[in-house]
Amino acid sequence: MKLVIIDRDGVVNEDSDEFIKSVAEWKPIPGSLEAIALLCQAGYQVYIASNQSGIGRGLLDYDALFAIHERLQRAVAELGGRIGGIEFAPEHPDAATEMRKPNPGMLKDLARRLGVSLEGVSFVGDSASDVAAARAAGMRPILVLTGNGERTKTKLKDDELLIYKDLAEFARTTIEQDQRPQTA
Predict the structure, then answer these.
(1) Catalytic annotation present for 17
(2) Greatest CA separation found in the chain?
(3) Which of 53, 67, 99, 152 is the most buried (most CB within 10 A)?
(4) What is the pTM of this model?
């Protein structure tokens, strides 16, 4: 199975220090929804894994979160793609469980439910916690420079980290690499 797991805020949609609390506040980053659709059309299963501490902070409820996710899934479907599932950690950072990034629990739980290994699977994010969770889960961390990506790049100064301008560039490059003939 070809699989890609993606963070939501700052990668798929614009992030906000005030949190994304409603469908009206949810704004896709240009090209991100098309990128997900392209990955799907190239045979990838795409899942979202996102910390959503706005729930634990009391800034939004589950109905609002699910409405945002429904809008995201519908928008991707309209472009010919499909999000296989959206995983999220709702807890406040002060009450973090193993499921909240930078811990790998959310990613490992998804792999267990899908019956797959995460070795070599890309996790696309924009923050240090995304990179740390990917590494802790044995995945290939990918940093995009949208959202908090520029700040994260400066903070991490990591020569081994794969960095892309945005999700669209990651998707195009990944699909192009898949289409190259394999050399023996």
Answers:
(1) no
(2) 55
(3) 152
(4) 0.95
Token pair recorded at residue 73: 């899934």
Per-residue pLDDT, averaged over 64-93, amounts to: 98
Select which of 7, 15, 126, 166 is catalytic. Answer: 7
For the chain, the C-alpha Rg in angstroms (whole number) is 16
Tally DSSP H helices, then E strands, for the chain: 7, 6
Q: What is the DSSP string of 89-123?
A: E-S-GGG--TTSTTSSHHHHHHHHHHT---TT-EE
Amino acid 160: pLDDT:
82
Copy the structure tokens of residue 11.
């990668």
Amino acid at 167: L
Residue 158 is a catalytic residue? no
- Give the type of residue at 36: I
pLDDT at residue 184 is higher than 60: no
Instruction: With H, G, I as helix, E, B as strand and everything else as coil, classify residue 135.
Output: helix
pLDDT, greater one: 180 or 40: 40
Average pLDDT of every residue of the chain: 95
| Size of the chain, expressed as the number of residues it contains | 184
State how far the alpha carbon of 166 is from the alpha carbons of 149, 150, 183, in Å: 9, 11, 29
